[in-house]
Write a structure and sequence with these properties.
seven-stranded mixed sheet, globular, alpha/beta, 10 helices
């Protein structure tokens, strides 16, 4: 399954009231949205037809989230579905995740792209070398191990999507400071010269889930219902629904 197929089905199943995308480029993935949408990219060049209530923001994601009311375009300042596909460097992706999660509900869904590079060259940090590659995942795959280690409360599911894998995060907690508190120490470990040491479980996708199996899980009506509740009441119910469907972070 292609990453855009996964994202398209998530739009259909989750029926998000709001959608945030970091990394718009030509607008291909934003064409999937039919809801109130914000797209953030400092250099977007949209060439695809878009059919949604859209605000395009020409700025970096850091600048966007530093605004007084970044989600003012939405009817409510909550992100139901987010797709993070910005700068392909781990420190940026982790910062985007931290900023997005602050604006979520426990029933929200966060998707990060390029989490499963297919070989070491594809996982490099160097942008000049990356320009010579057909696909550049960068080293954002490192975010997975950070989330698994520091946020065991999140359901962290790597998806075997083409071309470079995705990560779906369920049961977010907008009040958590675990990633923020560890950010400086984690990034110090992230930023190392190429070639990167990519774990075998990433290259071989041994933990990755079949996206069709994930999408078939009977959780979507419940997530739509539970996002109507206050976060404190919804959180344990979301965890119960996910657990009963067998959706948990793999060992």
């Amino acid at each position: 399954m292609l990453r855009h197929e996964l994202l398209s089905r998530l739009h259909e199943l989750l029926r998000p009231r709001t959608y945030l995308e970091i990394g718009v480029q030509t607008g291909r993935s934003i064409t999937l949205s039919r809801t109130s949408t914000i797209g953030v990219d400092p250099a977007f060049s949209v060439i695809n037809e878009i059919s949604c209530d859209l605000q395009l923001v020409r700025s970096t994601s850091d600048e966007f989230f530093a605004r007084k009311a970044p989600l003012a375009h939405f009817p409510e300042p909550v992100i139901d579905l987010a797709f993070i596909d910005g700068m392909h460097l781990s420190e940026y992706a982790l910062r985007d995740l931290i900023n997005v999660e602050r604006h979520t509900h426990p029933a929200s869904v966060i998707v990060l792209d390029d989490m499963l590079p297919r070989h070491v060259d594809e996982a490099g940090r160097g942008r000049e070398a990356a320009k010579k590659r057909r696909a550049w995942a960068g080293d954002v795959y490192k975010v997975v191990s950070t989330v698994r280690a520091l946020r065991p409360d999140l359901v962290c599911l790597e998806m075997d999507t083409a071309p470079t894998g995705t990560l779906v995060l369920l049961a977010p907690d907008a009040s958590s400071n675990a990633l923020i508190d560890a950010y400086d120490d984690v990034v110090e470990e992230y930023v190392v010269p190429d070639p990167q040491t990519v774990p075998e479980e990433v290259l071989r996708r041994t933990r990755a889930m079949d996206p069709a199996h994930f999408l078939a899980a009977p959780v979507w009506p419940d997530l739509r219902r539970l996002r109507q509740l206050p976060a404190g009441r919804a959180a344990p119910e979301v965890r119960r629904v996910l657990a009963s469907a067998g959706l948990r972070t793999p060992d």
